[in-house]
Amino acid sequence: MASKIKVDNITDQDNNAVISRCGSTHTVTAEVYKADTIKDTSDNTYLAKCGTAITLGGGSDTTTVPGAAVVTGNVTGANLISSGNVVKSNAYQASDGGSIISQSGTTITIGASGDTVSLASGASQSGFGRSGSVDWETTAKTGDFTASNGEGYFVNTSSGDITMTLPAGSAGAIVAAQDYNNTFDSNSLTIQAAGSNKINGGSGGGKIVLNTEGEGVTLVYVDDTIGWRSIEQSVFTDQSVTAEYIVATGGTITTCGDFKVHRFTGPGTFTVSAAGNACGSNQVDYLVVAGGGGGAGRDVSGGGGAGGFRTSNFWGLPSPTTSPLANPTGVVVSATGYPIAVGGGGGGATCQAGPGSPGSNSSALGITSTSGGGGTGFAGPNPAQPGGSGGGGGRCSPSKFGSGNTPPVSPPQGNPGGSGAPGSGNADGGGGGGGAGVAGSPGNPGTGNGGDGSFISPSFATPGEGTPGPVGSTRYFAGGGGGTQHRNQNPANPGDGGAGGGGEGAPSGPGPNGVTNTGGGGGASRGAPANGGSGGSGMVIIRYKFQN
After folding, report:
1. Does position 420 have pLDDT exceeding 60, yes or no?
2. 180 and 152 in contact (C-beta within 8 Å)?
3. At 289, is the secondary structure helix, strand, or coil?
């Protein structure tokens, strides 16, 4: 039999009780009790330490923490509360008592009111998805940008076109964009797919353009077949396309940056072999100037009116080098040949009473500019002629100036000529021919000047085309011809030709001609006999984007 030591009390060297017995109660009073393993009376381990790992309970034991108890720190183990690898609880809280996860019936809540629940960097989620809406960024975008999944953007294009590049597509990704202040019709929003992604099943890596005022779109990425699908948009049929550009021949062709310019000084054909598309180019800008009218003969006569001036500025050449008469819409072309007609200038009058001859019309791309009207002479029975711009009236024929913008178009193609002086003094003269930008001035007081024409950007015309004018760094076309005073007036004081090729009134003898290929009106003559000057021939210029 094993030896036994029986005592009821054990004390330390200071006579402090370590273990004491009182009836059936045993009390351990030492302040520190050290052991790596504690077992029950059946030799089962219920607390053990191995290195830095501490195990509570045995392999099949259940360890219970009382309801009011709090466990802190890092607690691990296979069987904390139940068997296997399952930890069961209806609520998990942070150390400050805030709810992390809670369950009520079949509803599970993550976080508490006011909390932010976020995924760690690099983590992903599945099964949650989105509700079909986006989180809107309320600071408007004013330049090119790349969108992020789950975000909507207000886009302000008031300063120019903007491109939004979509994120790489993944099933369920969602992006939205909306016109910020109704400017998409002036400056568009281009939505560019990333990589080889499609939009509405179109071309891989393509784009769509939103160019309707107030337009917006929401796109959801479906799969590689459809790509990004528009689910909320005023137009649901837009498909992404690869940018294509106009290819054409005809006339004298020059290149300026990303643009080609075709110039016609005579008849020809603008032949389009590829019509392009809206994402690249499918519209052209134009300048169509008709032939100017001839000036009146003899003296105290009216100058010839300028040929009609019509131009467009779809491609947005900046002010102030673009005419205020420019139509903001160009011409959408198709793959065909467009006949070009360039009008000649009208001849000057050969007698005192008869007006100068009108010029000829110019036309291109369905745009027609009307010839300038001829000026009329002293007390002539025939009025000055109407036209793109009207001819000037002769002395003693104050009401016989020619009307402009005939037939009427918008923006207007020209202006009326100036009226002749009603009196019969030598200093009284004929009116100036109308110009594209300004009407001809009357022949009283003094002599009528031809009205100034209008202008285009030097990116549209070369320095050798047109003439200089009041607006610097531009080229003028369609100026009116100047009128003249009586041959006995000294000094002669003839009327000036308008900027844009208008012939001045003659100081003596035949009237000067309008400048070739400007549509300028011919100047009136001064003398007996003497013929009025001929109008200048017209011109056609076509400009378009051929690359980006």
Report:
1. yes
2. no
3. strand
Please calculate the CA angle 507-511-516 and round it to the nearest 5 degrees. 125
Q: Sign of the CA dihedral 479, 510, 370, 389?
A: positive
Residue 544, both tokens:
């378009």
Q: How far apart are CA 375 and CA 356, in angstroms?
A: 5
Who wins on pLDDT, 399 or 271? 271
Of 310, 307, 418, nearest in space to 373 by CA: 307
- C-alpha to C-alpha distance for 199 and 220, rounded to whole angstroms: 10
Write out the two tokens for 232: 């909320």
Burial of 493 (0-12, 13-18, 19+ CB in 10 A): middle
CATH topology of domain 135-233: Jelly Rolls (2.60.120)
pLDDT band at 67; cut points 50, 70, 90: low
Burial class from Cβ neighbours inside 10 Å (0-12, 13-18, 19+) for residue 125 reads: exposed
C-alpha to C-alpha distances, 87 to 59, 68, 112, 504, nearest whole angstrom: 16, 18, 21, 102
The better pLDDT of the pair 346, 240 is held by: 346
**SS3 labels along 398-457:** CCCCCCCCCCCCCCCCCCCCCCCCCCCCCCCCCCCCCCCCCCCCCCCCCCCCCCCCEEEC
Report the C-alpha gap between 54 and 39 in whole angstroms.
14
pLDDT digits (tens, 9 = 90+) for 162-178: 999 999 999 999 999 99
Query: What DSSP line would sit under 222-268, residue for residue?
Result: EETTTEEEEEEES-S----B----EEEE-SEEEEETTEEEEEESSSE
- When mean pLDDT is compared across 171-180, 331-340, 423-432, the lowest value belongs to 423-432
Helix or strand holding residue 384 (H, E): none
Cα 308 to chain centroid, rounded: 31
What pLDDT score was predicted for residue 79?
Answer: 39
Predicted pLDDT at 107: 78
pLDDT tens digits along 451-473: 999 999 999 988 789 999 999 99
Phi–psi pair at 526, nearest 5 degrees: -145, 100
Query: Residue 509's closest CA among 357, 295, 297?
Result: 297
Domain residue extents for the chain: 135-233, 244-548
Residue reference for tokens 């408007």: 140
Count the neighbouring beta carbons within 10 Å of the beta carbon of residue 198: 23
Integer angstrom CA distances of residue 536 from 381, 447, 514: 26, 21, 4
- Token pair in block for residue 378: 């002293």
Q: What is the Cα 467 distance to its own chain's centre?
A: 32
CA atoms within 13 A on the CB side of 291: 25
pTM, full prediction: 0.66
